[in-house]
Amino acid sequence: MKIIKVKDYAKMSEEACSIVVNKLHQLENPIFGLATGSTPEGLYECLIEEYKQKRASFKNATTFNLDEYVGLDKNDPNSYNHFMNEKLFNHVDISNEQTHLPNGAAEDLEKECSDYEALIREAGYIDLQILGIGTNGHIGFNEPGTSFSSRTQVIDLDESTRNVNARFFNSLDEVPTNAITMGIESIMESKEIVLLASGENKAEAIAHLIEGEVTEDFPASILQKHAHVTVIADEAALSKVKA
Length: 243
Ligand code: PGA
Fold this sequence. Notes:
alpha/beta, single chain, 10 strands, seven-stranded parallel sheet, 243 residues
């Protein structure tokens, strides 16, 4: 696991941005795994700027997002589909057909999950997966206790996750109780992974990610077993790492 220590959120975003831009240049048809949440917003802003400055183009890229709430239509302002359109897709040269998120409003959710897996497989798997980390160690919405051999599935959101994410909704009651998430094994199939973290509130999670026991009780710990992971974290997020 490679650790890149940066000063702050802005530097974390720039560092991640340059890794993504390099992939856009290196690969003919890069496949990205993308994340939502507060952490990657700065990365997406930077990518939009790179596109505007004509230093990067997404016209040959394909994207797969990690997760989506169950029960929210893709146009719902709280859906991750809407988030991605607003924060990135609407501002760069990527067409709708090139971007993928699970459909949390699908009638047959099981089929939606297996279809999503098939799409990733048929595309040739993810070249670069961007991850955030939950304070409880989740990656995607794989909450503590999720099997390391899980594939894309519907999961129950932890109460702690619903509480943390309630800031985006009018009230806690509105936060969905379920989500579709790429599984741990699906994430581990990515050829390269970049995990981003900023701020003191992520310090314990980052310490466990880097130095803690590999256990299903802390899903992100499995990344210690992946051959090509880079953690880009700021000083505050790294403040509890001992070594
Ligand atoms: P955040 O979420 O980026 O909003 O902190 C990270 C996560 O829950 O994976």
